[in-house]
Design brief:
single chain, two-stranded antiparallel sheet, disordered N terminus
Length: about 140
């Protein structure tokens, strides 16, 4: 997600709750939950079940400005090689306008993706996700 007027700077968001506010000490940890923050380009740490749901609806999600990218990475330690599939999410810059974010969050909820998993997608601030999910009730 890109924010800033004319500069294209990538925003750090919490890997667990999606908050963009970091601690004052400069360690890039979230002020809400204390978890590490990462760049938008970093993979989303979501469950395999959520990855499967998102990938199954990839075409529908493009209508919301969300593009999914599957990344395969190899991690080695000593004598073990583990292949992992990460899910990178590219978000269109215009996602924040015109209620598209609200529609996307409600659509993800309809897909039975939990609030915590929606937060890990780092779409917006956790308070905004909660407000959208609470309004639907």
């Amino acid at each position: 997600m890109w924010e800033n007027d004319n500069e294209e700077t990538e925003v750090f968001r919490c890997l667990k709750c999606g908050c963009s506010r970091t601690d004052a000490s400069g360690f890039l940890s979230c002020i809400l939950c204390g978890a590490a923050c990462g760049l938008r380009s970093e993979q989303c740490y979501i469950t395999d079940a959520t990855k499967t749901k998102l990938l199954a609806h990839a075409e529908d999600l493009k209508d919301f400005g969300l593009t999914l990218e599957e990344h395969k990475s190899l991690n080695k330690d000593a004598k073990t090689t583990i292949a992992a599939i990460g899910l990178g999410i590219q978000i269109a810059r215009e996602l924040q306008t015109g209620g598209m974010l609200r529609k996307l969050i409600l659509y993800l909820h309809e897909l039975a993706i939990s609030r915590d998993e929606i937060l890990r997608l780092r779409l917006t601030e956790p308070e905004e996700v909660d407000q959208i999910l609470n309004e639907r009730e």
